[in-house]
Amino acid sequence: MAEFVKVASTDEIKDGKMKGFTVKGNKLLIANVKGKYFSMCSTCTHKGGPLADGKLQGNIVTCPWHGRKFDVTTGKVVEEPPKENEKKYGVKVKGKDILVKI
User: Fold this and answer.
1) How does pLDDT run across 23-41, given as a tens digit for each residue?
2) Residue 54 CB-half CA count within 13 A
3) What is the number of other CB atoms lying within 10 angstroms of the CB of residue 89?
4) Which of 12, 27, 29, 31 is close enough to 72 for a disulfide, judged by CB 3.0 to 4.6 Å?
5) What CA–CA distance (Å, rounded) separates 48 from 71?
6) 37 - beta bridge partners?
7) Nearest alpha carbon to residue 44 among 74, 75, 23
């Protein structure tokens, strides 16, 4: 059964930044886009690159290995031809705690 787990503090991820985490065996990233937090799988569906090491511009993260682009707010690939989307995780903020549904 999925549950919300504390992963980070809002102080750790500033606006326009992201950070990778491993939680219960899941590699994920949390991105701060204009003060809202989003989480998705951090392993690129294209070649397995570490998305948390990529570049975040607005709500788009670019894989550092092959340039595949994903929308961190939805986990969807944002270029043609469409490939496999990323798994999206639910996020909620409680005080300064960022909780992710795992």
Assistant:
1) 999 999 999 999 999 999 9
2) 30
3) 23
4) 31
5) 17
6) 32
7) 75
Distance from CA of residue 90 to its chain's centroid? Answer: 10
20 bridge partner residues:
29
Residue appearing with tokens 């909780």: 99
Kindly calculate the radius of gyration of the chain based on its CA atoms and give it in whole angstroms. 13
Task: Identify the sign of the CA torsion 73, 47, 26, 96.
Answer: negative
The pair phi, psi for residue 82, each rounded to 5°, is -65, 140
What mean pLDDT comes out for the span 72-89?
Answer: 89
Distance CA 76, CA 74 (A): 5
